[in-house]
Amino acid sequence: MNLDTIPKLKHTRSNNFFLLSGPCAIEGEEMALRIAEKVLEITSKLEIPYVFKGSFKKANRSRIDSFTGIGDEKALKILRKVSETFDIPTVTDIHEINDAKMAAEYVDILQIPAFLVRQTDLVVAAAETGKVVNLKKGQFMSPESMKHAVTKVTDCKNEKVMVTDRGSMFGYQDLIVDFRGIPVMSKFATTVLDVTHSLQQPNQSSGVTGGRPDMIETIARAGIVNNVDGLFIETHFDPAHAKSDGANMLDLQYLEKLLTNLTAIRKTIQTF
């Protein structure tokens, strides 16, 4: 997929990796704008093509009392405001067929969650909007099997598709990234590594997903060395009090140093 097909995406000629980054969920307008502004400041300095990420609702929750959102339309309007305020593209995940058409009115990229990527009707609904579709590899799927998910999109006459690895289940309560999958999936579509979700520790007895944010740079470096096209990093200025996925998000204050290091690695490996 040509990155120029993503509306408002800047620095597409920088030969850098691109970045999907933002909070796990939209908690309110002020927090979304604050995070977007800071990430944009950093990525502009480093010439990293940037897409703001935020879920307008969360459907995959361990407990019924977990945060699911502030209201669909309210959150989608905030995503639109982020895009219009900073002239950047946005991505959000969808969970039901009807979400596709609704969300497509507000964002530039529709993301299919890993646990739903085999749902044909959902993938087709996203593809038929004509938007860019980001397919997250199921934690239970092989890299090779993602070819079929990609084909579902392209069979709908939509070539704007990317694949994101977010780790594979390793026992009941951990994930592991098999970097052999990156070159495999890159044969099918543009590849992205979801750094933060790959470090989740799901199925905890508390009903709240854990994580290993201390390993974010380790996984991200390996992704760059293995030639991923893009990175997915959830970030928040106060992860401890984030309403979703705080345990594995990157504290926003550390993002600039991380991206600076990753950009240097990218430039180095391109000399070989």
Beta-strand share of residues: 15-25%
Return the average pLDDT rounded to an integer: 93
Which sequence of SSEs, written as H and E, runs from N to C?
EHEHEHEHEHEEEHEEEHEEH
Shape: globular
Oligomer: single chain
Helix content: 25-40%
Mind telling me the C-alpha Rg?
Answer: 17 Å
Structural class, from secondary structure content? alpha/beta
Largest sheet: 8 strands, parallel, barrel
Contiguous helical run count? 8
Our measurement of the CA-to-CA distance between the termini, rounded to an integer number of angstroms, reads 24 Å
Reported CATH architecture: Alpha-Beta Barrel
CATH superfamily: Aldolase class I
Low-confidence stretches: none
CATH fold description: TIM Barrel
Strand arrangement, major sheet: 1-2-3-4-5-6-9-12
CATH domain class:
Alpha Beta
Please explain how this structure is put together.
By secondary structure, the protein is α/β, with parallel strands linked by helices. The protein has one domain: Aldolase class I (TIM Barrel, Alpha-Beta Barrel). It is built from 8 helices and 13 strands. It has helices spanning 29-46, 72-86, 97-104, 120-127, 146-154, 181-185, 216-225, 255-269, and strands spanning 18-22, 50-53, 90-93, 109-112, 132-136, 161-165, 168-169, 175-176, 190-194, 200-201, 210-211, 230-236, 250-251. An 8-stranded parallel barrel has the order 1-2-3-4-5-6-9-12, surrounded by 6 helices. α4 (120-127) links the parallel β4 (109-112) and β5. α3 runs parallel beside α4 and α4 crosses α5. The longest helix is centred in the first third of the chain and has 18 residues, at 29-46. It is globular. The mean pLDDT is 93.
